[in-house]
Design brief:
The complex is a heterodimer of chains A (531) and B (214). In chain A, helix 9 crosses helix 14 and helix 14 packs antiparallel against helix 15. Chain A is built from 16 helices and no strands. With 214 residues, chain B is mainly alpha-helical.
Amino acid sequence: MKNYLTDDYTLRSWFFTTDHKRIAILYFASLILLFFIGGAAATMIRIELATPRADLVSSDTYNRLFTMHGIIMVWFFLIPSIPNTIGNFIVPLMIGARDLAFPRLNLASWYLFMLGAAITLLAIFMGGVDTGWTLYTPFSTLYSNSYVAVAAAGIFVAGFSSILTGLNFIVTIHKLRAPGLTWYRLPLFIWSLYATSVILVLATPVLAITLVLLAAERIFGIGVFDPRIGGDPLLFQHLFWFYSHPAVYIMILPGMGVVNELITCYSRKKIFGYKFVAWASLAIALAGFLVWGHHMFVSGQSLTASLVFSFMSFVVAVPSAIKVFNWTATLHKGTLRFDAPMLYALGFIGLFTMGGLTGLFLACLAFDVYATDTYFVVAHFHYIMVGGMVTAYFGGLHYWWPKITGRMYPEYWARAAAILIFLGFNLTFFPQFILGAEGMPRRYHVYPPEFQVWNVLSSGGATILAVAYLMPLFYLGYSIFFGAKAPANPWGATGLEWQTPSPPPKYNFERQPVVSAPPYDYEHAPEPQNV
Amino acid sequence: MSEPGDIAAHLSSPKQRDEVLELGMWTFLSTEILLFGGLVMTYMVYHHADPVSFAEAGRQTRIVIGTINTAVLLTSSFCVAAAIQAGQAGAVRPLKGLLVVAIVLGLIFLGLKGVEYAGEYSDHLVPGVDFAQSGPHAQGIRLFFIFYFLATGLHAIHLLCGIVVLIVFLRCARQVVRRPRYLAGLRTAGLYWHFIDVVWIFLYALIYLPGRSG
């Protein structure tokens, strides 16, 4: 029988496809490339930081390296990572739909993404950008001699790709659910992507207009944010973080969604406190819009504003903690299996908890004044974004790999990679907490010699991490050609996506599925198969 | 009745198709509100910082053209609403006529906007191109006109898109009698058109009214 991969082999059938599964594959391929470009910049940074002196690059080149790392990783890997690849593939399958609500818009979103990526890469290859990914004015508009406007144009275009994806998910989840699939029967991955989509749709346009103002000021020199002629540079920071803080939740909510699926499947239990986890996603999305000022505690905003933003930042910790506690409670007395996706999920919980708790440190006004712009902040957000999101991305990739490709991956290597990622990650980023607490500022490539030992540990950890990230490229690539054929439901998982063959046929289901059971009904799920 | 092919292959019923279109447009409009919202917030912040200069700048705008344009756009919105009514009744000729009037009114708006821009250019009020104001309020006036050109420019781009959409619906207006999909699409396009209208009402109040209250 034909599936979505064997349906047609022409290039045209790939580049003009409106099948959500093929578009997901297009995103997978693009994101792998961009991940390794962003990773190459990180590698250069870690090599340079192995010694206290400047041996590899000049200060100016170093500025361009960490800017490139930030821009690529944030906008061209993390934000689209789980939503546009796994989400694109799995959402319609999970809700029993034949496609997303707007299939052509979905394809348009990929083309916009690629156009945005091409423009941004052009800016990098023309000479790069030296402002940091935050593009703060007045440096970015008045002083920087790098390709700020070109990069801003690339990010602007990619933003519309985000908006279209979010819009597509919102409408799909509202209107295309299978008969009987009520909101409280939805897998929690859907809830988390719904919350993510709300942020994509409501926050991204603010970034778009901010970039327009930035470009207008830079190109025409009209002083929107120039204090010498009446503008207010802080206004840029407010607008930027009004987008970019919610964007942090775009970069973690989908990961949380994946972890719900993995924890339940490999504990053979329904999730503990379904409604709490579901609403926690929306609570994080909404509260996330009200905390942006915690990026500006030392910017000169009023103390009252800082106090309110500090309080709100603590509030966000509540739904996040609910999730962690509920995952832990789900594990309790479960029939645990330590397959590779489960190892990733457990790694996620540990690393996310570290990232989340250090986030509470930074939400404290007094400590944040001390830690602002130090490696403590760098370590904190890498624990969330890399330790959290990237780990969940790999976990989800392994979990759904049989569904996507129709092949089983080598379990031994997958477990080895999962463990190596966890160890390498901690070795890379834990020393950075210590560096930050001892006062090493971020974004400098020369530092006092007493910091060297922690930097060497960090660079050593980065080497392990790099190897661990490259491993799946080989064994997953191998499995596409030589892996055992995957059955429809190798893990004995619940969820509609496992009720259709692997890989799924072009229109997902032979007949319209009807749902009559609650989610994560593992008491009645089939046994996992050992393939 | 809908004929085969009137519903996309991934949808199951005409009702679902109509709901998907409508929710899609509302979601898109929420994005649009935040897009203009960022600009309006910029305006509010600077207005709050320097209300006197903003009042001075507001007095330099051309309120007659602005007011006529408001009337023009509101009338066009009425025409689109009436065109949808005509479409529901299956009346092709009134549908086409009303769409033509709405499109022409949209073009008149853009034409008047062009006249207004030309006037501001000759008054040296275009920041970054030709801006020559002196006095204590020059900086505030420049900030006001940055907002003015970005916001009205962005609005004009939206209006232009709206006009293109209406032209597409005008060209295939005969489909209204046999394809329910057409009417669903037209309703969605109407939502967008009304949104452009509402944005303009906000811009009108922000641009033309400061400094003119007594």
